[in-house]
Amino acid sequence: MKKIMAVLLCMFFFTPAVPGAADLEPEIVLRNGVNAIISVLNDPALASETRKDARKELLFNKAESIFDFNEFSRGALGRNWGRFSDSQRTEFIKQFSRLIANTYIAKIDDENFEDLKITYTKTEMLAATKSGIERADIATDVFHNKVVTPVNYRMMKKRGEDWKIYDVKIEGVSLVGNYREQYRTRFNDSPDKIIQEVKEKISQ
User: In the 8-state DSSP scheme, what is residue 130?
Assistant: First the structure.
C-alpha cells in the first residue's frame, strides 16, 4: 500500500504540466496543481536538510488545494461516517489528512524518479449527481522503472467550488475503497478510539 501511494503522489508531483488547447477544465486544474507542487520541489531555498520539515509542510498545503480530504475521509470511513459527530468528523479529517502526508509524502525523498514519465490518456466528463456535483475521470499512464501503471483520478466540482480529487484508482484499485475496507468492520470501536489510533500512527 505504501509503495502504491508513493507512486500516486509522485505521479501527481512530477507529471509534466503543459496543458493543450483541447484540455478540459478538470485536467487543467490538475496540471496547475502539479505546477505548484513542482515549484516547491525545485525551490533551492527548501533543498537543505534544515528546511526539510518546512518543505513537507508546503507540499501538504499544496496537496490540500487539489485533494478533497473531506470526501477522501468520508469515503474511507464508509458507513462508519454516520457514527461520527460533526466535531469527530472534523478531527478525523484533520488527523487522517496529516497521517497520509506524514506516511506517504515523505517517501518522495526516498525514491529515484528520474525516469518517471506521465501520459494523460483520456479525460471523461461524467454525469453530474442529482445535487449538481460535476464529476470527471482523468486516465493516465505512469512509466517508472520500465513498468507502466494505469492510474485514474476521480475529480468533482461542487457548486461554487473548484475541481478536486476525491479518489484515485491504481490498476483498477480504489484508494478510498482500500481504506474503507480497513474500517468496514470497526463498528464495535468508538469514533474516539479510531481517531486516537490515527493520532498514534502520526506520532510513530
Answer: T
pTM: 0.81
Q: Report how far residue 92's alpha carbon sits from residue 70's, in angstroms, rounded to the nearest whole number.
A: 9
**Greater pLDDT, 65 or 6:** 65
User: Domain 2-203 is classified in which CATH homologous superfamily?
Assistant: Tgt2/MlaC (3.10.450.710)
For 84, 89, 192, the CA distances from 176, given in Å and listed in that order, are 18, 16, 21
Q: How far apart are CA 116 and CA 111, in angstroms?
A: 11
Report which of 39, 45, 20, 3 is spatially closest to residue 142, judged by C-alpha positions. 3
The x, y and z cell numbers of residue 116, run together, are 518517471
Cell numbers for 20: 493543450
164-187 tens-digit pLDDT: 999 989 889 898 998 899 999 998
Q: How many CA atoms lie within 13 A of 194 on its CB side?
A: 27
Structure letter (DSSP) for residue 47 = -
Instruction: Using alpha carbons, select from 6, 194, 184 the residue that is nearest to residue 100.
Output: 6
